[in-house]
Write a structure and sequence with these properties.
The protein has helices at residues 4-10, 59-69, 87-95, 107-117, 134-139, 145-154, 184-191, 194-200, 204-212, 272-283, and strands spanning 46-50, 76-79, 100-105, 123-128, 156-167, 174-176, 179-183, 218-224, 230-234, 236-240, 262-267, 293-298, 300-313, 316-337. It is built from ten helices and 14 strands. Residues 41-169 form the DAGKc domain.
């Protein structure tokens, strides 16, 4: 995901200290309930949109056991396909009367489910099963299947923002929940094989990142709300609803998933030493402190590049483009979160 370059730098001797940056996320088990008997037709219904390439054997059975144990009906199980990574399945779940839709997969599955649920009032639960699981980390969703399912069924409802993006003037508007952007970051997403991610996880981005680290900066024009155009030479521009990376690292310290604005960051190191300085700035969680790292907040953003550049939406490559038009859609998605999130959750508030 978007954290590739931080982990890439961890491979460099000069940044050996990164190996010590680990955040242990405590798992909190929701209390068991003793549900009152109910007729089958009166029991609430959960639907699970599952990416079969991400889940482990026995996941379906564990989710079903939690649902029935809490007095819910046996869940509706809907698997994603290459042609439909989750949006169609989530729409079907709404049509079937699901009270909550569980996105069981990685950040791509979560984004696809949110595409269908945004604006409907139907809650989305998270069962993390991908490499990054960045939204789940942001709100403190437990890693375990059973614990995450309990949160999805019994946790609190939180109305969060979503980002909406148009690419090169297209009429299609895509949803994102974590980050979207253009430049070097997206090139890494594009060049990292899926099979390698499955095999070694986040380390897959180290290889691609180190190979491309010496590339050139690109000319970019940024338009933020009604402000004057900003012209920069940069390596990557990212727009985030959440600023959380793996290992507890935070790329955008001010980002909140329900603050009604999007955060924008430009990373413009020109040398290896520049990347080191950028990484140290991220580790210290300072919004300022290096001339090659700039932050802004806005409700609408237009990014124009001098030539088509690789782009990504929540870590999924979407091809080359020259213009990204992005806006925030405030409080439009209901997300099921822990009723008492762990204190180290980046967006626990």
């Amino acid at each position: 995901m978007t954290e590739w370059w931080v982990f890439a730098l961890a491979a460099l001797p000069v940044l050996g200290l990164l190996a010590g940056v680990v955040v242990l996320r405590g798992r909190r088990r929701a209390p068991d309930h003793d549900p009152l008997p109910a007729e089958p037709e009166d029991r609430p219904l959960a639907a699970v949109v599952a990416n079969p390439t991400k889940i482990e054997p026995g996941t379906q059975q564990r989710i079903e056991a939690v649902c029935t144990g809490l007095g819910w009906a046996e869940p509706l199980w809907l698997e994603t396909t290459v042609e439909d990574p989750g949006t169609g399945q989530a729409k079907l779940a709404i049509d079937k009367g699901a009270d909550v839709v569980l996105a069981c997969g990685g950040d791509g599955t979560v984004r696809s489910v949110a595409e269908a649920l945004a604006g409907t009032g139907v809650a989305m639960g998270l069962v993390p099963a991908g490499t990054g699981n960045l939204l789940a980390r942001t709100v403190g969703t437990p890693d375990g299947v059973a614990d995450a399912t309990r949160v999805a069924l019994t946790g609190d409802d939180r109305a969060i923002d979503v980002g909406r993006i148009r690419i090169d003037g297209s009429q299609e508007e895509r949803v994102f929940l974590v980050m979207a952007g253009t430049g070097f970051d997206a090139a890494i997403m594009e060049s990292t094989p899926e099979a390698l991610k499955v095999k070694v996880g986040p380390l897959a981005y180290v290889i691609s990142g180190l190979r491309a680290m010496r590339g050139r900066r690109i000319r970019v024009t940024l338009s933020l709300d009604d402000g004057p155009p900003l012209r920069r030479r940069t390596r990557t521009v990212l727009v985030g609803n959440s600023g959380t990376l793996l290992g507890g690292l935070v790329l955008m310290p001010r980002a909140r998933i329900d603050d009604g604005v999007l955060d924008v960051v430009s990373l413009a190191p020109g040398t290896l030493a520049g990347w080191v300085a950028v990484a140290l700035r991220v580790i210290t969680k300072r919004p300022r402190g290096h001339e090659r790292v700039e932050h802004w907040q806005a409700r609408s953003i237009v990014i124009r590049t001098e030539a088509p550049q690789p782009c990504q939406v929540d870590g999924d490559p979407v091809g080359d483009a020259q213009e990204l038009s992005i806006r925030v859609d405030p409080s439009t998605l209901v997300l099921r979160v822990p009723d008492v999130p762990p204190p180290d959750a980046p967006d626990a508030g």
